[in-house]
Amino acid sequence: MGAPPMKRISDTVWEIGAEVKEGMKVPVRIFATQNLINDIDQYVIEQITNVATLPGIQKYACVMPDAHSGYGFPIGGVAAMDIQEGIISPGGIGFDINCGMRLVLTNLTFNEVKPRLRELVDQLYQKVPAGVGSSGFVRLSASEFLEITQYGAKWCVEHGYGWEEDLEKTEEDGMIEGAVPSMISPLAVKRGLRQIGTLGSGNHYLEIQVVKPEYIFDKEAAAIMGIFPNQVVIMFHCGSRGFGHQVATDYLQVFLKVMESKYGIKVLDRELASAPFQSEEGQNYFSAMKGAINMSFANRQTILHRIREVFTKVFGREAEKLGLSMVYDVAHNTAKIETHTVNGKSKPLLVHRKGATRAFGPGREEIPSIYRNLGQPVIIGGSMETGSYLLLGTERAHLETFASTAHGSGRTMSRTRAKRLFSGEKLRMDMLNRGIYVRSVSLSGLAEEAGAAYKDIDEVVKATVDSGISRKVVRFVPIGNVKG
Amino acid sequence: MRRLPYRYLEDVAIADAAFEVSGHTLKEVFTDSAKAVSNIMVDDLESVAKVTEREVKIRSDSLEYLLFDFLQKLVYYKDAERLLFSGFEINIFPGPNDYVLEARIFGEEIDSEKHRLSADVKAVTMHKFKLEKRGDTWIGMVVLDT
Fold first, then answer.
1. Calpha distance A331→B146 (Å, rounded)
2. Are strands A100-109 and A437-440 parallel, antiparallel or unpaired?
3. What percentage of chain A has pLDDT greater than the value 90?
4. Which one of 3.10.290.10, 1.20.120.420, 1.10.3720.10, 3.55.10.10 gives the CATH number of domain B6-145?
5. Do B79 and A72 touch (CB under 8 A)?
6. Are residues B125 and A95, on separate chains, in Cβ contact within 8 Å?
7. I need a labelling partner for A298 at 20 to 30 A (CA). Which of A17, A318, B92, B105 fits?
8. Is residue A339 situated within a structural domain?
């Protein structure tokens, strides 16, 4: 397909009209700098214009600056559906339901951590299993696992894997209401049963990072969030593991069977398989998906517990004394009911975010009270070589993107190509020479994650800031990394 | 010339892993697709010993969905039983109103010391999923979420 005409709305906002593809119900809005637009993956355009044809979509189908092509929706795609007339689509959420980022503080400085960095990363590599087929330390029966799908991170805190304060710094307080265990297949439970407390592979990682003084952009917000110059912080990225993947697969199959025959919904890509949100199948998926949201919160909570144990062992002090408090935990693969304004009217919508982070502006009651005046924290994970960001959501994001922003750097090339172009061992050595110590289960997996396989994170963040959908607080620089 | 069993594609889905298979029989295409899925998870498929066996029986209305469900089984076993497979004995035949796959698949438990592990396949996707006959050749295309 040739590139459709794109109208420039502002320096960082681009529109594709609803007339370019038959069946489009709304235009597409892309949030990107000129540089990012120049290099945009054409499949992203094909995929987001397909999304714009989905029943019940409101206002615009949005593309975040880090977008790249995926399956069904592009990664970095946002679509808000009318909850009466619209659909729900597993392809708009992703197989890795509630995949997200967690950022954790320490009161240690770079100089304190540097001499122990190898030991720290080696210990984390031991205690936070990563890679294909890894198992966590929490032994569960199927019924206990189903409790986790209902209670999420709350279950973990009640069982000694976390602090009460962790919950208030987790999106949804670590537990979304409305998960229904009977909507979850035994296959999904079997896939996830041993995976609580594991990272997974691909772009999932656990990183030790440093706050360089020159990269604190908003001193006041940084201070409120507990961030100071030369501080060491921990960031990790993972999701609902095989459990969430199976929930999505189960309902993809259900939706493919009923979508057209029962509901007359035609989609341009079978990965956009959908059911009316108010249908039995749609509601069943929504209830099961919430179970995966909770499992994912529990997974990240358990990993935090292990991180605290490792820091305590390596530094010989209790986690509380090392200041291992959370900044925030935020997801980027979800669909949630939120109130937004469309055509001047406030209404509840089902907002699909696939590889996009919620970015509520100041004042929203969903934001933890300590951050409510700032806006919702947004954690942007960069490639393991470059760096990551902490941003804040804005009021403008509500107007432009249903309060959504980027989630990472965004890939520029496929894993297959990256594996051909880069050597995992050479990359590991190069990074070591630059002061980044990496432990990875897989050298070929490492090659797939080379910095050069990703967009420029600074350019992605610039696009979010210039378009007003986020504001910068701090940029973090990696010094240690554990990956699958 | 030796038939290339499967070919990974670089430009189909940037986020994920895609491959194409072709063969004169369905059995070939199903076997090679299974190997391609396994080979994404472990770099050296030969290192996976054929010491554990599972029987798989699947029915589906279409051959495409039969392939989808079969590959999905491999992803399931990877998580649920920590098994990787390298050997496949597959039979496909028409049922009264559908298609049937019966297979014996052979492999072993994941051992990160022994196996050079690579990407964890999250799911088989329906994005650009294809199984079709062109002339006397079956062609399959699969995009995996990794």
1. 18
2. unpaired
3. 92
4. 3.55.10.10
5. no
6. yes
7. A318
8. yes
| Longest alpha-carbon distance in chain B | 46
Number of domains in chain A: 1
Q: Is the CB of B78 less than 8 angstroms away from the CB of A201?
A: no
**Which sign does the torsion angle of CA A157, A176, A328, A195 carry?**
positive
| Contacts with A192 from chain B: Cβ below 8 Å | 79
pLDDT tens digits along A298-318: 999 999 999 999 999 999 999
HSE-CB for A223 with a 13 A CA cutoff? 3
**Active-site residue, A245 included:** no
Could you tell me if residue A342 is inside a domain? Answer: yes
Q: How far apart are the first and last CA of chain A?
A: 36
Q: Is the C-alpha dihedral spanning A145, A148, A153, A156 positive or negative? A: negative
- The answer to whether B117 touches B110, Cβ cutoff 8 Å, is yes
ipTM of the complex: 0.93
Distance (Å) from the C-alpha of residue A417 to the closest C-alpha of chain B?
Answer: 5
On whether residue A288 sits in a domain, the answer given is no
pLDDT in tens, A372-407: 999 999 999 998 889 999 999 999 999 999 999 999
List, as one string, the DSSP characters of A218-236: -HHHHHHTT--TTEEEEEE
Domain limits for position A91:
7-95+335-373
Q: In angstroms, rounded to a whole number, what is the distance separating the alpha carbons of residues A88 and A460?
A: 28
Smallest CA–CA distance, residue B132 to chain A, in Å, is 16
Is the C-alpha dihedral spanning A102, A108, A111, A114 positive or negative?
negative
